[in-house]
Amino acid sequence: MISSPTGSGKTEAVFFPILDILVRKNLKGLRVIYVTPLRALNRDIFRRMAKLCENLGIEIKVRHGDSPPSERSYLMQSPPHILITTPETLDALCIIEGFNKHLKDLDFLIIDEVHELLEGKRGIHLLLTIERLKEFKNDFRIIGLSATSIEANILAELLFGNKNYVIINESSERIANVVIRFSKNLNDFAVEVEKILAKHNSAIIFTNTRSMAEHLAYFLKEKQNLNIAAHHSSLGKDIREEVETKLKEGELKAVVATSSLEYGLDIPFVDIVIQYGSPIQAKIFKQRVGRSQHKFGLNARGEIFVTDPIEALEAYEIATNSNNDILEKEKIVNTYDILIHHIIGLLLINGSINIYDLYSKIKNINLYKNLSNEDLENILNNLSNSRLITIKNENIYPIRIKAIPYYFNTISTIFEEPLYSCIDIHSRRLIGKVDGRILFECYEDNVPLVLAGKAWKVVSINEEKNMAELLEVSSEAEIPIWVGELLPVSKEVAENVFELLKELIKFKQFTKLNQGYVTIDQELLKEIESFTKEIIINSPFIPSKDLFIVEKFENFFIIINPRGTKINRALATLLKGILRNKITETISTAYGVVMQIKEQITFDQLLRYVNMIPKIYNDRDFIANFLYDDYVFLSILKQVSVFTGVFKKESFKEITPKILRSLRNTFSEEEAIKWYFQYFLNIDELLDFVNNLTRDIKVLCFETRTPSPIASKLLSRFPIFKEIIDKPALSLVETVEKRLLDEELLFICFACKYEIKKKVGELEENPRCFRCGSVKIAVVNPYDEGMMKVVEAFKRSRIKELKKLDNDFNRFILSSELMARFGKIAALVMAGRGIGPEFARRILINWNGNKNDLIKKIIEYEINYAKTKKYWSDNSSTH
Questions:
Q1: Which of 122, 324, 456, 673 is the most exposed place for a label (fewest CB within 10 A)?
Q2: Which residues contact 220 (CB under 8 A, 6 or more apart)?
Q3: How far apart are CA 591 and CA 251, in angstroms?
Q4: Beta 141-146 vs 108-111: how paired, if at all?
């Protein structure tokens, strides 16, 4: 294992001795496989080494998903001395008979960016692929390369197993000079970027999402006329390679990228990295800022743009940790769904395996050394039920007709989610289509979705219809920087942010943020100082990692708890499960949880619910009941069910929540629950936290008329922005009014029972029956099933039926009374989505006479309806 800073020559340190061995011993055949996490890095390594290898008479080739069929065919017939590839391609090559026969010559397996590859399921996948390589040759040498020394021993044990190994740690860490700046909106950011680029050769601008990368590239290129391009994994191979080449040769002033340009690329002209929003994690920022001045001995250079004081302190903490090599530790969960893929691979390679030999092989893998006989029996039963294997006389055989397509369908842990149609909640127009996982992450974490050049709030999602309703929250120039909050902020960073904030409030030493390699500019420093003064004046507490604060404001509980993204996400998820019918919505951040309640809950009750979490977690029936309403869990369950062989990957997009409910109490469900709680939520740390609550942490509860400054920051992330409802743009008011006037409603006279359908805009100010002139006219929305039943019974004078429909008949009468009193305006209000006579009466009796204010109130009710309609029964969808 070689651990060394970016730009220090790790690749050459590995390649040169190996090239020397190949030349001196005149070795033939496939001798070296070099694995990297990204195709861009594959191409970069190839370009750097191709000329040298050619001069030495050594053949080097790249093989990955972008490789054309002709290259793939040539590779089978005549493999090179050195093959550069990705983990997924290596996995596929293992069972291809035309290729795997060459693996017997393998001498060296090099894993680049090993700290990245050994995270999540992709890392487990790679570790098991290495085990399958040993079926062909067991004595090849494994070399891991890492830009960080974090947990080198743990990585080495996973990578090398029980073999002897050496860790070479080049300790001279590369420092980055970082400035953190304030940016109010996208226009401000664009102006600053232009100034920065004027002083530098070229830059990489990193964002945390692909949609934001596209949007920033468009904005900076089209509106600022900058020589700039976008780069991310969804772009085609030719476009990515063209962007990489132009950046390397200094033909682009900047590239806006995601993780696709994070690793190991040698880009000589890039002398500064710009991070849009908090980098979220120190290990990510270390890689990103390391792309600048990519030469040993030179300090990296970066600038981070943020929009609020808490995000500024978070960025400060992360950048400082990056310089000090204090990086996040990744939890490795030994899931069995990936192990199933490995077992099928072993069977396809060997033809059959004795059960006891298989058990021995798996137990020799460090990650699975605690596998029990019962665990293996459950796995094999699942494989047998999925018709992937058959067992005879304690020997396992693959059912090849099913096992081969299964294997190739599960070489990647990345699955494409179905696309959801996104509808403007007010105009009802289609905005565009978005990947389901991204949509639900934006919904659950309450981050804006960038679509069609604007930022949108995801208000509601219909999983059966693959449709979502969105609310526009800003123009393209005002898109919030915190769009990338989908990655987790660690517990340690969140706690340190609050401790730093406490220290600044107590000692007022703001200049300390301007010392050292990481500094905060003066404008942002003033924002932070102003925020601390606001806390002193308006907050009943001083923030601290040793406090668990519950603040009640109107119908919101705000839990201020700096425990990081995963712990608070777990807290929010379990509280949401416990309080299902008592709350409307929950969101979580690294610094707390916000819950909108619809039933009265006391502080004591809420704290009792928090203390119930360890007990609730062990009730699997209870857990499963609410998890099937959680999109992230369902997404994980879908992927697990493909790996366990229950569903085929080609039908992945057609697997609905209803179909997934058929997996209750199955092996697939158990695996999905394990991954969801252990990896996505980090349940163990939450349980430790709850068990130590009140003993190590002080609990404070406040009910406030106005939220504290920190609570305000958390509330501002909530789906329904109060300031948006209070002050919606005039264009939005006009759009909604136009839609309401175009709505067609049914009007029925109480006197003569005459009925007619008309658009609201076609009504007179004080409508009368079009036949008899009566002012008592009932209004019915044709989509209101209960009211439509009343209409039929009323027209036919069916008194008994009307008595059975008592509630809806009362609403029918109320609608006529509102029309008699308020006229056309009453119809306008009842044309709103989810606004029946009861809600219309509430709106109208409190109306001040200003039509714009009336439309704003309708907007508020429509948004609340969209958010809460899933909790209503079918016959109460409109009130």
A1: 324
A2: 190, 193, 205, 226, 228, 254, 256
A3: 42
A4: parallel
